[in-house]
Every structure is written in C-alpha cells, then in structure tokens.
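In response to reviewer comment 3 from the previous cycle, which asked for concrete evidence that the modeling workflow produces usable outputs, we include below a single protein chain processed end to end. The sequence was submitted unchanged, and the resulting structure tokens are shown without manual editing.
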Amino acid sequence: MAKSVNKVILLGNVGKDPEIRSTPSGTMVATFGLATSDRYQDPQGNWQDRTEWHNLVAFKRTAEIVRDYVKKGSKLYIEGSLRTSNWEDKTSGQKRYKTEIIVNDLSLLSGRDEGSGGYSRGADSSSSAANFDQRPPAGHDDAAQSAEISDDDIPF
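The workflow returned the following structure tokens.
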C-alpha cells in the first residue's frame, strides 16, 4: 500500500468554552469548536471574511490541558488528524456523518491578558500558568545590550 497522510494544521480561536467529559473507562475527553478565517475578494472587488468552524476532540492528557487552559476566545495552534464517523439517525433512518479533528498537539497562543497561560503541550505541567513566560522583563536583554554591532560586522 502506498504511503498516506492524514494531517491537519489549524490556527484559530475557540468559539465557546470546551466541554469536558469522561468515558466509562475513565478517559478524559474534551470537545470544542475552533474558528479559522480567510479573506477573499468578491466579484465586486470588496474584501470579505469567510469563517470556517472545525469540531475538535482531545483525549487523555491533551484533554486535561484543554480543561485547564483553554476557554472561549483562546487562540490555538493545533496539529491533528481527520476522523469521520457515521451513524443511522434513529428518527429519520438516514445515514449521518460527522467529521472531527483529533488533536495530537496544541499550543496556546493567547497572551495572559486574553486569559490563557501561554501553555504549550510540551511544557512542564507542574508549573502554574503564571510561570510559563520565562522571558526577562522588557529592557533586560543582556545579550542584545552586550553585543555591539557595527557596519563592519555585516557580511553583505
């Protein structure tokens, strides 16, 4: 069989607070919607925004991160894969489909003033949200202050 790829990359905003639940076996599951937007020019030459809504599902540790750090308005970078499920509607008997993105990795891009801690899935989960920004305060960039650059240092 030839190699195949099922990868989704999204950068967008959460539309409402995530819903958190557990499976009967105790696995945590987070479901939430993410909006992405693009801009296009209509036939009259006016710029229009088009918003696309994506259904996302996160499991286990990623779901815990979503529970603790993601809320309505959070800006997220998501990597995941598409999964389509189908079922038969009990009332109409019609076959229904739902496509979701299974979150494999996420990074919070919102600043603290927007309510998120700036968490990236790979960060140490024992830290509090207030301690994620490890940058020194503005004006304390020792490397930039100690490195004097002149025109002679530029190679072109």
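The first helix runs from residue 60 to 69. We consider this sufficient to address the reviewer's concern, and the full set will be provided in the supplementary archive.
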